[in-house]
């Protein structure tokens, strides 16, 4: 009788432990699923994480910087000259690269990391530049000082341009464009090392970026930690331009 009672009691304890572990595992799974869903919604409608694959925006942005992009605010307020924007290739801006096939587990891990904001696997499929002209702007390069003019007003871009020692202006790449409504004219801060609107006038987009291609406005460097901080749009550079919009 004692032996049977001991076996029964031991089995009950093991069963109780199993029942005690499952609710904990279930709760952890629920928390993870909710966290992934919330992160997915935030990333889809509010902010996205990207990393910088090239030096075209130096010194404002360095190679391998990680940034956050505001997707929501521009939907209501639009974009302004000076904003730094991430956008999908309008066609022909990026070189065609062969992408190696990945196994399903690797794809699943990449997707999960991108959802929670740890990874940004599609960064190389996007570009990041500064807006110089918006719809209706007449943008010309350059005046005798090497400055771009917008609607006849020269702009002093020295606060953000990455110039070599002794260089007072970027190398002149002439253009004279009027930006169509619903499009942007964008240039890199590292002007002499940026394949931007100037070099894509022979592409289907004629060098303009349709606003529908814009993911959002970059606003924060999140990594590396010593560079953590808000991005400066230098809107004051464009203050002298008559706003006829």
UniProtKB/TrEMBL annotation:
Query: Where does the Peptidase S26 domain lie?
Result: 27-223
Please give the superkingdom of this protein's source. Answer: Bacteria
Reactions listed under catalytic activity: Cleavage of hydrophobic, N-terminal signal or leader sequences from secreted and periplasmic proteins
Q: Which UniProt keywords apply?
A: Hydrolase, Membrane, Protease, Transmembrane, Transmembrane helix
Quote the PROSITE patterns the UniProt record gives.
Answer: SPASE_I_3
Q: Which CDD domains match?
A: S26_SPase_I
The enzyme's E.C. designation: 3.4.21.89
Membrane-spanning parts:
28-47
Q: Which GO terms describe its molecular function?
A: signal peptidase activity
Q: What class of enzyme is it?
A: hydrolase
Can the keyword Ubl conjugation be found in this entry's annotation?
no
Subcellular localization, as worded in the UniProt entry: Cell membrane; Membrane
Keyword Transmembrane helix appears in the UniProt entry: yes
The membrane topology of this protein is:
Single-pass type II membrane protein
Looking up PANTHER family in the UniProt record yields: CHLOROPLAST PROCESSING PEPTIDASE, SIGNAL PEPTIDASE I
Tell me its family. Belongs to the peptidase S26 family.
**Entry protein name:** Signal peptidase I
Q: Which organism is it from?
A: Microbacterium memoriense
